[in-house]
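Example S7 (C-alpha cells).
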C-alpha cells in the first residue's frame, strides 16, 4: 500500500442524550469495523464508505434507512449521496421510500448511469432495474418514530415548533431548541482514504423530523452535505440542512483544504462560517489526501469514529 488508510465516520450531531450515547458509539464502531476491514485488505475508499454507511443505515439508532424520522404525513423518505474522488464520479438519490439501503442505490447510480442524481419513483425504478429489492415503506417505519412525530406535531400545534427543522433563521429559537435537546440530527456519513491514495465520501439520511414530503436536505446534494475529490478533500456533514445547502458548505470546506488550510482548521472554520453567516448548527468530518483530518461541531455532541492502522477510536464530543 502506498498510503496509510483512514476511515472517518459520523452518526449525527445534536444533543445526544445519555440514554442514547452507548447505542450511538456502538453503531459508529460497527460501521468503522465493516469499512476498515475493506481498507485493511487493500480495498477501495469507495467500497469502505459504502460498507460503513450501509451498517449505519441498517442500525435503527440513526436517522438513515430503517428507523429514520418521519415526514409530516408519516412516511420515511430517504436521501443519500456517494462520491468517488479518484474517478470524480458521483451518485445520488432523494425522496426514496422503498429502498432499505439508499447508499447502495447511490452506488448503482455512480457506477451504472451517465446521470448523477435520481429522485422518487424514478430512483426506485432505476435501483430495481439494477437488482435492488423494493420494500414496503412501512418496513422502514418504527413505532418510536410514530410517537416522535406525534410529539412534534403536538409541539407545532402548541406554537412550539422546532426552529431547527422549520427553516426559521432566528438564532435565538434555534439555540433554545438545541438547549432543550429537541433538535436531533442523526444523519450518517463516512469519508475514507485508501491505500492507493484515493478519497471517497458518503452521506445518508431520513432528513428532518416532520419534514414536508418531497423536501430534500443538504445530505445528498453534491457539495452541500457530501463531496470528495482527490485534488482537495473528502467531506460529510450533518445538521440543520437548509443553511448548509445555502452555503454549499461541503465544497467550501474542501476548497479551503485545496488552498492549503489543514483539514483540522478548515473543519472548525466551516462550522464557524455556518453559525456566523446563517445561525446554523451541525457537524463535519473532513479528510485530506495526505490522511490529515478534521472534525468539528457546534451542537452539544456529535457521534464520530476513526480507524487507521494505529487502531479504532470513537467519541461523542471533540
Ligand atoms: N442534514 C440533514 C437534513 O437536513 C439532517 C441531519 O443531518 O440529521 O436533511
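Recovered sequence:
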Amino acid at each position: 500500500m502506498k498510503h496509510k488508510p483512514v476511515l472517518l465516520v459520523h452518526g449525527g450531531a445534536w444533543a445526544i442524550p445519555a440514554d442514547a450515547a452507548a447505542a450511538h458509539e456502538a453503531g459508529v464502531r460497527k460501521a468503522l469495523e465493516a469499512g476498515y476491514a475493506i481498507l485493511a485488505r487493500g480495498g477501495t475508499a469507495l467500497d469502505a464508505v459504502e460498507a460503513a454507511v450501509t451498517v449505519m443505515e441498517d442500525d435503527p439508532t440513526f436517522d438513515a434507512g430503517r428507523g429514520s424520522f418521519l415526514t409530516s404525513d408519516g412516511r420515511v423518505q430517504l436521501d443519500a449521496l456517494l462520491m468517488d474522488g479518484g474517478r470524480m464520479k458521483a451518485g445520488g438519490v432523494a425522496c426514496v421510500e422503498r429502498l432499505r439501503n439508499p447508499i447502495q442505490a447511490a452506488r448503482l447510480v455512480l457506477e451504472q448511469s451517465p446521470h448523477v442524481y435520481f429522485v422518487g419513483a424514478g430512483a426506485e425504478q432505476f435501483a430495481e432495474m439494477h437488482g435492488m429489492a423494493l420494500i414496503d415503506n412501512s418496513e422502514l417505519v418504527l413505532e418510536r418514530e410514530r410517537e416522535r412525530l406525534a410529539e412534534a406535531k403536538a409541539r407545532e400545534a402548541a406554537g412550539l415548533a422546532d426552529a431547527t427543522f422549520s427553516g426559521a433563521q432566528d438564532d435565538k429559537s434555534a439555540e433554545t431548541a438545541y438547549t432543550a435537546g429537541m433538535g436531533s440530527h442523526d444523519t450518517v456519513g463516512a469519508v475514507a482514504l485508501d491505500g492507493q491514495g484515493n478519497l471517497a465520501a458518503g452521506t445518508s439520511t431520513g432528513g428532518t423530523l416532520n419534514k414536508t414530503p418531497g423536501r430534500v436536505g443538504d445530505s445528498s446534494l453534491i457539495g452541500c452535505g457530501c463531496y470528495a475529490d482527490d485534488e482537495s478533500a473528502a467531506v460529510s456533514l450533518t445538521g440543520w440542512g437548509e443553511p448548509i445547502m445555502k452555503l454549499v458548505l461541503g465544497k467550501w470546506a474542501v476548497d479551503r483544504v485545496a488552498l492549503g488550510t489543514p483539514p483540522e482548521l478548515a473543519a472548525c472554520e466551516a462550522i464557524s462560517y455556518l453559525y456566523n453567516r446563517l445561525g446554523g448548527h451541525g457537524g463535519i468530518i473532513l479528510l485530506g489526501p495526505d490522511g490529515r483530518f478534521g472534525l468539528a461541531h457546534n451542537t452539544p455532541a456529535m457521534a464520530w469514529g476513526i480507524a487507521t492502522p494505529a487502531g479504532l477510536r470513537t467519541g461523542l464530543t471533540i
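Notes on this example. The pocket of aspartic acid is lined by residues 12, 63, 185-187, 205, 207-208, 217-219, 225, 238-239, 241 (CB under 6 Å).
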